[in-house]
Amino acid sequence: MESISLPNFNHIYKDRSIFLTGASGLVGKVVVEKLIHALPGVNTIFILIRASRGKSGAERWKEIEKMELFNRIRRDCPDRLSKVVPVEGDITLPDLGISTTDMRRILEETSVVMHCAATVRFDEPLAAAVEINMRGATRVVSLAHRMPKLECFLHCSTTFVNADKVGHPIEEKVYPAPCDPHKLMEASDWMPDSLYGAIGEEASKAYSNTYCFTKALSEAESVCNEESRNRFDLPYLQHLVVDEAASLPTIIFRPAIIAGVWKDGIPG
């Protein structure tokens, strides 16, 4: 098989700082490794990582960087590991649970936001999936709006946000949302768990699971006026990231099924 020559993006990221969510996840860990190895000119990589099981975010990162995935970093450029700055926080908390000191530095330095955090459990209860995948996305977008140096906001979604589209090719565009995401989020605050769960079961008929459903809605935001919002007119619904991040230079990245690494980094 012929080798593939990949473009060099180092000049784009030179002296810029990145804020990444989901760094402890399957995709996030690979993204961190790739950023470190491929971008020698990057300034700082802030990674949001929550405390868990009695370990701080910094302690969890120390465990992650010892993984086999980071072998070539330790071999080729160990000094670049210092570019990674673990930031303790949680996307389910206001301001992502970031301390005042960390927040000040992140806001002042960040040029690129990569939002990869999500719950990917297919059987996640709807309320939990909404909190993480939808409210989490709005919190990260809100943070991005406060970054004066921001040049790119990247939202990692999934191809399956369009799982309900059948009978024709899926175009590279934002389709109308299946329902008003804000009404769904608001309902989680007052609706009985049994009824809210029933909504998740109904949504899963079209989207297979609550993961795909909430990832679709994490892109979605109603831009209709109050009258049409009350009528719940679906044609007026646009996507959350597209609307709330309308004034930001935004990319929505929709990977398909994620499998093991073929070669780059380590196989598997």
Automatic annotation (TrEMBL):
Which positions fall inside the Thioester reductase (TE) domain? Answer: 20-229
> According to its UniProt record, which reaction does this protein catalyse?
a long-chain fatty acyl-CoA + 2 NADPH + 2 H(+) = a long-chain primary fatty alcohol + 2 NADP(+) + CoA
Looking at the record's lineage, which domain of life comes first?
Answer: Eukaryota
GO cellular component terms given for this protein: peroxisome
Task: Quote the Pfam families the UniProt record gives.
Answer: NAD_binding_4 (PF07993)
Q: Which UniProt keywords apply?
A: Lipid biosynthesis, Lipid metabolism, NADP, Oxidoreductase
The EC number(s) given in the record are 1.2.1.84
Q: Which GO terms describe its biological process?
A: long-chain fatty-acyl-CoA metabolic process
Q: Which GO terms describe its molecular function?
A: alcohol-forming long-chain fatty acyl-CoA reductase activity; alcohol-forming very long-chain fatty acyl-CoA reductase activity
Q: Which InterPro entries match?
A: FAR, FAR_NAD-bd, NAD(P)-bd_dom_sf
Family matches, as Gene3D superfamilies: NAD(P)-binding Rossmann-like Domain
Q: Which PANTHER family match?
A: FATTY ACYL-COA REDUCTASE CG8306-RELATED (PTHR11011:SF45), MALE STERILITY PROTEIN 2-RELATED (PTHR11011)
| Similarity remark | Belongs to the fatty acyl-CoA reductase family.
* Role, per record: Catalyzes the reduction of fatty acyl-CoA to fatty alcohols.
Q: What is this protein called?
A: Fatty acyl-CoA reductase
Give the species.
Pristionchus fissidentatus
